[in-house]
Amino acid sequence: MVTSCFAFFLLSALYYAIDVRQWWSGAPFYYPGMNATIMYVGHEICGNMFPWHWSVGTMNTHMLLLSQDIWGTLGWILVAYWLHTLKFFLSL
Predict the structure, then answer these.
(1) How many Å is the Cα radius of gyration of the chain?
(2) 42-51, pLDDT tens digit by residue?
(3) Rounded mean pLDDT of the chain?
(4) CA nearest 92: which of 31, 35, 30?
(5) How far is CA 22 from CA 13, 14, 15, 19, in A?
(6) How sure is the predictor about 21, in pLDDT bands with cuts at 50, 70 and 90?
(7) Which residues have C-beta within 8 Å of that of residue 46, sequence separation ≥ 6?
(8) Distance, CA of 76 to CA of 67 (rounded, Å)
(9) pTM above 0.90, yes or no
(10) Please, which pLDDT band fits residue 4 given cuts at 50, 70 and 90?
(11) CB–CB of 38/32 below 8 Å?
C-alpha cells in the first residue's frame, strides 16, 4: 500500500506539472508512451538478453542493480525513439 500511495502521489504531481500547469513537456515519457505495448512485450521477451541484462558476480549491491535497471530503461527509451522516428505506432 505504501508503494501504491507513492505512485499515486507521483502520478498526481506529474499530471499537475505536465497537463495542468504545462511546466514540463514530459519528454522522456512521451516516446515510450506512444508504443507502450511494444515496450511491455519487448521487455517481457527480451528482458534477460545481453544488451538489457548482465551479471557481474553475485549482483548483490544496489548500485549494480540500479545501473542495470537504468541501462535497460535508457535502452528501451532509445528503441521507442527509433520507432517514433520511423512513425511506427502500435495501437490495439
Answers:
(1) 16
(2) 888 887 776 6
(3) 87
(4) 35
(5) 12, 10, 9, 5
(6) very high
(7) 52
(8) 14
(9) no
(10) very high
(11) no
The length of the chain, given as a count of residues: 92
Grid cell listed for 79:
528503441
Grid coordinates representing 80 are: 521507442
The full DSSP string for 34-77 is HTHHHHHHHHHHHTTSTTT----TT--SHHHHHHHHHHHHHHHH
Read off the amino acid at residue 39. Answer: M
Enter the C-alpha cell of residue 26.
Answer: 514530459
Query: Cell triple for residue 2?
Result: 505504501
Quick one: which of 8, 3, 6, 30 has its CA closest to 84? 30
57 grid coordinates: 558476480
